[in-house]
Amino acid sequence: MDDWNYCVSTLPKVSRTFALNISVLKGDLHRSILVAYLFCRTVDTVEDAAKLDPQAKINLLTEFVPLIQSTDRSHRLQKWVSACSIVDGTVNDLDLLKNIDRVFRVYDTLAPAHQTPIAESVSRMALGMAHFQKKFTSEGLTPLENEQELEEYCYFVAGVVGEMLCELMIACLPNLSAEGRETMRNCAVSFGLGLQMTNISKDVIVDQSRGWSYIPRSYIEETGMTLEEFQSGSNPVKNLEVIEKILLKTTGHLRDALKYTLAIPRNEIRLRLFCIWPLWMAVETVATLHNNKNLLSSDAPVKISRATVRRILRRTPLIAYSNFLLQQSFDDILKAPELNSPPPFQRQSLVARLERIQLTPSIEAE
């Protein structure tokens, strides 16, 4: 199997969801986004390793950055792959780590105009993940302090991807209006935040069982609970109140994601579907999580049904050309009144805070 076919065959093994929407793309954009996703998955596997201590994660994450920023990486890449032997994860994720050199060889064939945003995004993601690992300890529940830190964390793991995808798409849309370009760039980060916060909400119990949480401490304390009470689930009503707070914020970001999608020219059906499918699945997930007490009584992530996924894949291509029908479909899913007035996303405030964060590599000998 050649390197490209390895990448194509690996994608659905590490993410069935993103394999669906990436497969709808064609040509150079398909190739570039598939490679970019595998890089993102690689650093995400390091960050998610449940048995790896924070400093080991910081080392691996920061050491990945020079690999993607340089073409002279052969020796360092071999050393990095060897160091990843301590990473735990699924069989398919670990296989990707072991064969990341194959992804790099495909990456080296991409157009420089595509390599640049990919390298910038993945580097910022890896360094951002390393920055937040410094806040975590290997023991105990370690939530983010407040909503601002939640936004900052989600930016580094997903917002940077939104920025990257936006620039790759805009480069393929020479006739995109100035207004459309501005809307996409203004909403790109919010799109990423919305998808990430959806994942945080559905995985809240799973994450706690693994020893950490991405629910802000301030969300928990505003209900009068302690962190220990939230983790124990002793007050389901208040726990649900915490989840509802993050769901409301999530819907605001998902509405921005819809604005992003509707700014793509209506004749660019493949690009629209690439955005629509993960967005509709996220919106359906939020609707499923809303006031769902089962979320608090199971350590399994809440998932939408396969029938719902099939319905999305079957129906959305029929309405992808129409802004009106897409808006109507989106609103029909998110029809709960409690989710209709999300707080506005203060993008410039996030940008200002990000500028103050020093993403300097911090590697220590193990």
Summarize the structure in words.
With 366 residues, this protein is an all-alpha fold. The protein folds into 2 domains: 1-137, Farnesyl Diphosphate Synthase; 140-359, Farnesyl Diphosphate Synthase. The chain contains 18 helices and no strands. The chain has helices at 3-14, 16-23, 27-48, 54-69, 74-83, 91-98, 100-107, 112-133, 147-171, 178-202, 204-209, 217-221, 227-232, 236-263, 269-289, 306-319, 323-333, 347-355. Mean pLDDT is 91; it is low at 362-366.
Number of structurally distinct domains: 2
Biggest sheet statistics = none
Strand content: under 5%
- How many helices? The count is 18
On the 0 to 100 scale, the average pLDDT is 91
CATH superfamily of the largest domain: Farnesyl Diphosphate Synthase
**How far do the termini sit from each other?**
36 Å
Secondary-structure element order, N to C: HHHHHHHHHHHHHHHHHH
Any idea what the shape is? Answer: globular
Q: Determine and state the CATH class of the largest domain.
A: Mainly Alpha
List the uncertain runs. Answer: 362-366
Cα gyration radius (Å): 20 Å
Alpha-beta classification: mainly alpha
Helix content: 55-70%
Strand count: 0
What's the CATH topology label of the largest domain? Farnesyl Diphosphate Synthase
Give the second-level CATH assignment, the architecture of the largest domain.
Answer: Orthogonal Bundle
